[in-house]
């Protein structure tokens, strides 16, 4: 399988970069969180509220397995995908993983993201990054440091993908 999985913190640019890359390389694009929402007919916050995080993580793994059956798609994964080693294995077995490494202070500079529940408490994003950073790095086949403009990040991603997309 030749899928490309984009991982990283909420607000790091996974969705934007995966969509742009899918257009640039003429590949199908899927957002894992949107896939889960469509399948369960609930938003992610509703799933968490009604069923809890354990239920969500189980659904996330099941949906990732379904998506991994496809070939040649670009997938924007949820920020917590790396919390389950099984998910990393699924992604590794069906493609390559690109970590979009955006420091928390850069995420917080994007005023369009400040309405996200996670980002309302500005200290929480730093804590979460500290908890997940090593998981992201160890899962990643490639790392794209996203500290500049959107155009700069796109060019970095395209440069990485030119080496691996068939």
Automatic annotation (TrEMBL):
Keywords: Amino-acid biosynthesis, Aromatic amino acid biosynthesis, ATP-binding, Cytoplasm, Kinase, Magnesium, Metal-binding, Nucleotide-binding, Transferase. One of its GO terms (cellular component) is cytosol. Belongs to the shikimate kinase family. Monomer. InterPro entries: P-loop_NTPase (IPR027417), Shikimate/glucono_kinase (IPR031322), Shikimate_kinase/TSH1 (IPR000623), Shikimate_kinase_CS (IPR023000). It comes from the Bacteria. Its cofactor is Mg(2+). It is an enzyme of class 2 (transferase). This is Shikimate kinase. It comes from Qingrenia yutianensis.
């Amino acid at each position: 399988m030749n899928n490309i999985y984009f991982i990283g913190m909420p607000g790091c640019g996974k969705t934007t970069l995966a969509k742009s890359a899918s257009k640039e390389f003429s590949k199908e694009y899927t957002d894992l969180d949107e896939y889960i929402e469509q399948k369960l007919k609930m938003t992610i916050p509703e799933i968490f509220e009604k069923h809890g995080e354990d239920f969500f993580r189980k659904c996330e793994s099941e949906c990732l397995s379904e998506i991994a059956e496809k070939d040649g798609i670009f997938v924007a994964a949820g920020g917590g995908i790396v919390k389950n080693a099984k998910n990393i294995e699924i992604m590794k077995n069906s493609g390559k993983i690109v970590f979009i490494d955006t420091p928390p202070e850069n995420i917080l500079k994007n005023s369009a993201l400040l309405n996200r529940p996670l980002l309302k408490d500005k200290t929480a994003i730093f804590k979460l990054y500290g908890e997940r950073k090593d998981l992201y790095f160890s899962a990643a086949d490639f790392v794209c440091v996203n500290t500049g403009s959107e155009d700069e990040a796109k060019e970095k991603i395209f440069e990485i993908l030119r080496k691996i997309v068939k």
